[in-house]
Amino acid sequence: MTETALLHQAEQHCARRGVRFTPIRRRVLELIANTSGGLKAYDLLDLLARDHASARPPTVYRALDFLIDQGLVHRIESLNAYVACPCPEHAHRFQLLICRECGHVEELHLDDVNDQLTAQAKALGFQVQRQTIELLGLCRKCQAN
Fold it and tell me: Most buried in the list 8, 25, 52, 67, measured by CB within 10 Å?
């Protein structure tokens, strides 16, 4: 998905939900979308400060929290980084393939995997509040090199 299409989708998504897609939130999403792999919060702050001199860590973290809540960005737990989500309707049911060589991140939506894990947790009396599935390895391109 192109950056333009991703931003347009985000605008529509926020409009449908009745939430504000402010210029700062838009710029944060744009910066994340321009990165092939995950982008760390302080790297994001450095990039944002070029356009908005007043940008501080709380500015970035508030924008990230909003984007995550709206399903427009995912946090890569193992890298402490953020990646744009091309399909916010699946925001809470996804898996990430992360190339440890080039940093490319691919999003999967294997709902049956999530259902099995949730069912097994429930059978054990465990209530799942958040689920993160990240698979680290090598993408096709890096394997070929």
Answer: 67
- φ/ψ of 100, rounded to 5, equals -75, -10
Indicate the annotated binding residues: 99, 102, 139, 142
Output the six-digit token pair for 98. Answer: 């992360």
Residues facing residue 136 across a β-bridge: 98
- Show binding-site residues for Zn(2+): 99, 102, 139, 142
> Domain 95-144, what fold?
Dna Ligase; domain 1 (3.30.1490)
> Which pLDDT tens digit goes with each residue over 19-72?
999 999 999 999 999 987 889 999 999 999 998 888 899 999 999 999 999 999
Is the domain 3-88 a CATH 1.10.10.10 member? Answer: yes
Whether the pTM exceeds 0.90: the reply is no
